[in-house]
Amino acid sequence: MVRTKTPQPNPVQVETIQLGVWKVLLAKNAVNSLDFSKQWNSLTSSFPFLKRLIVDMYTLDPWLSVLYLLSRMWWGMESAVSLYLSSHLLKTIEAGLREGKPNPSAILNALLTQVVVVIASVTVRWTM
């Protein structure tokens, strides 16, 4: 007895786009958004492609790849660092007011640190 499998309609459709000299193939599938097992399988099956993309990018220019990662990390921490430095500056001013004799060197140090970080943030944001 020979069993034949009836062909199932392929839910994946391939769309071809020509971008200059590059031919880009996009896979479009009709995955039910509530079917988490299919989404999980799709996610886990894409890890080798993501790894290959990262390795290819690093191979093309290691220095630029590391610089990009560092700039993205700074972008994520920028607001927290700015908030910490603002708090430090205000605490320094508050301590000087509480004691009745402000410490100008500590206030200037906190202010200059804040200015340097703001300049660095603007520079990183401008180059991204």
Order of helices and strands: EEHHHH
Whole-number mean pLDDT: 86
| Low-confidence blocks of residues | none
Number of domains: 2
- Work out the number of β strands: 2
Q: Biggest β-sheet, characterized?
A: 2 strands, antiparallel
Strand content range: 5-15%
Estimate percent helicity.
55-70%
Radius of gyration: 27 Å
Question: What does the model show?
Answer:
By secondary structure, the protein is an alpha+beta fold. The chain folds into two domains: 12-61, no CATH class; 63-127. Helices cover 67% and strands 12% of the residues. It contains four helices and two strands, in the order ββαααα. It has helices at residues 36-45, 47-60, 62-99, 104-127, and strands at residues 12-19, 22-29. Helix 2 (47-60) packs across helix 3 (62-99) and helix 3 packs antiparallel against helix 4. The model has no long low-confidence stretch (mean pLDDT 86).
SSE arrangement:
Layout: E1 12-19, E2 22-29, H1 36-45, H2 47-60, H3 62-99, H4 104-127
Antiparallel strand pairs: 1-2
Helix pairs in contact: 2-3, 3-4
Short description:
With 128 residues, this protein is of the alpha+beta class. It is 67% helix and 12% strand.
Which features would summarize this protein structure in a list?
two-stranded antiparallel sheet, 12% strand, 4 helices, 128 residues, 2 strands, elongated, 67% helix, 2 domains, alpha+beta
